[in-house]
Amino acid sequence: MQTEKSLLSPSAVLHQSLDKQRIVLSGTRGTSTLAALLIHVLRHYNRSFDFVLASSIPGQNQQVSFSNAPIILIESKEKDLLEYHHHIGLITNILWSDTTGFSSEEDYVKQFELFADCSPKGGILLYCENDPLALLIGTKPRTDVLSIGYKIHPHTSENGKHFLTQGKEKIPLHFFGSQNFQNISAARELLKRIGISHEMFYAAITGYKPTLQ
Q1: Tell me, what's the pLDDT at 213?
Q2: Range with the lowest mean pLDDT among 45-54, 100-109, 194-203?
Q3: Are the C-beta atoms of 184 and 153 separated by less than 8 Å?
């Protein structure tokens, strides 16, 4: 019987998701929160999906889920980015330190560039425009790859309450912070590519709390 640890190996994940649309989340920080946002919205609309998380998320008992779902969310460690052969790839940010496991910043950044370059024809690459290195990699021309930049979502606070702003509309939130507002934009743009409209996203995100219910 396979353990959850063995199911998390990149080769095992790829083997069990060859017939799925593979969505790979990457970046130095924020990917766990991004994964939690995506899981919340997809569950809100009863969408069928699988997932593989690089770390545990509060309120989420499993790090891996496999079924007959047509899509899979993969939160990838940097060293594994090229192993999943993504259809949709996302880079939240790139910040090297001596704890990343890479001997130099150049090697670390190169891994993300190779990840972006491996986007297939007809594939999608999302990247944060607020991060200089992600912006540099994301705007590099790639044949037949749709590159989509996103920024920190407009927001405001009133009387201790926090809101997203969309035109004249204010969407209430149970959380705040620049990294979270960045992840909100990332989730919104990614989900749009798999059938969740912006209107649907905003309707679902008001119920999201820092821990999954």
Answers
A1: 37
A2: 100-109
A3: yes
In the prediction, which pLDDT does 205 show? 93
Rounded to 5°, angle at Cα 206 from 201 and 210:
105
Task: Measure CA 3 to chain center.
Answer: 25
**What Rg, from alpha-carbon coordinates, does the chain have?**
17
Which residues fall within 8 angstroms of residue 82, CB to CB, at 6 or more apart? 111, 114, 115, 118
123-174 per-position pLDDT tens digit: 999 999 999 999 999 999 999 999 999 999 998 888 888 889 988 889 988 8
Pairing of strands 21-26, 161-166: unpaired
In the chain, what are the domains?
4-151 (3.40.1190.10)
